[in-house]
Amino acid sequence: MVHKISIESECQSKAKLLWGRRKTKRYLLGANYEIKFKFRNDGEKEFPGGRANIWIDYTSGQRHFMGFPILKIEKNGELQIEKIDDEKIEKSALGKGYALFNGEITAKDGEDVQLVKYGQELPKDASFHAIFIETREDVYSYYSLIISACALATLVFFSILQLIF
Fold first, then answer.
1. 8 Å CB contact between 53 and 65
2. Helix H or strand E encompassing 161
3. Distance (Å, whole) CA 84 – CA 70
4. Distance, CA of 81 to CA of 15 (rounded, Å)
5. Is the backbone of residue 60 left (phi > 0), alpha (psi -120 to 50) or beta?
6. How would you classify residue 55: left for phi > 0, otherwise alpha for psi between -120 and 50, otherwise beta?
7. Does the N-terminal or the C-terminal CB of the chain have fewer CB atoms within 10 Å?
């Protein structure tokens, strides 16, 4: 019988803008981000525990790898992993573009483990999560564009007022 384990990850950016004074929710190249994993047993029986191997592939061709033990999970039970070896899971964004989270789980009893996401079985090489990484220049260009658009709108507004009055 195959174990079915649902896997989810939650990431939180630790990046700061404006000379380190302003936090942002965006993932920035070179900045750290924190990861939490949640595993749920969607199978027909108890998961005896095992090992999770998770890797994060960046468009730059670089990769982060994490391996950690998974404890026993009761049927329909959940397990949340926030720390590995008593340290928060923190990684640095290594490439601009998408970072894809992939993984595999092995069970102590030797049975196969099928990863599940949103109730559907994931193929072997499919990612279960992704984040988009930008450069600081991308973010500053975006805000510059908004400021320029607001300045243009203000100029048009005052020009129309000048024509009317």
1. yes
2. helix 136-164
3. 11
4. 22
5. alpha
6. beta
7. C
* Dihedrals phi, psi of 90, to nearest 5 degrees: -130, 135
How much is the pTM? 0.84
Pairing of strands 50-58, 3-13: unpaired
Beta bridge pairs of residue 54: 66, 103
Residues near 99 by beta carbon (within 8 Å), at least 6 away in sequence: 27, 56, 57, 58, 59, 93, 130, 131, 132, 133
- Tokens for 133? 């990484």
Place of tokens 């404006």: 18
Please give the single-letter amino acid code of residue 82: E
Between the alpha carbon of residue 143 and those of residues 6, 95, 100, 134, 150, the distances in Å are 38, 22, 27, 13, 11
Specify whether the CB–CB gap between 38 and 10 falls below 8 A: yes
